[in-house]
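User:
Care to share a sequence and structure tokens?

Assistant:
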Amino acid sequence: MIKTHAPVVSLQQAMDQLFNESFVGGTPYRTLWSRGGGGGGTAWSGMPLDVYATSDEVVILAAVPGLRPDSLDIAFHQGTLVLSGTLPNVAEDEEAKQATWFLHELPYGTFRRAVSLPFAVDADQAQATFENGVVKIVLPKAEAAKPKTIPVRIGGAGQAIAAGGQAETGA
């Protein structure tokens, strides 16, 4: 099993924090991991995805915490799966508008992720389920994309090697 680890904090995030808190007068309650909330409505850069394939299907798992299933759009076109939607800004809730905010890191705004698949799928048979903030999309591979077994023949005389290694004569 190969594991990769991304750095917890990028240099750009650290420099942004240093600049914002030192020269712009940013809030002391912001952390290095904050994704903002500067009012632009696009504070969430993207959703984390897991994509894997078996011999019969491709599976995409997308973490979309805080999103209602009816706020997620899933489309497939010319080999590309697109997930898009809008996460609500909890700071715009009536109760939250009257509150004093000390930290606002929950992602909000519109998002769009596109995944290009390296093989053909049967999009008409696709299924998507939503549970505990994770959407699971299963796309069956098209028959042409599924692995095939090719028999090995001996010479040109129409003989094939059977599973036990014995030569069979073809008719």
About this structure: The chain has two domains: 1-34, 46-141. The longest strand covers residues 80-87. Confidence is low (pLDDT under 50) at residues 1-9, 23-43. The beta strands are 49-53, 57-63, 72-77, 80-87, 109-116, 127-131, 134-140, 153-154, 159-161, 167-169.
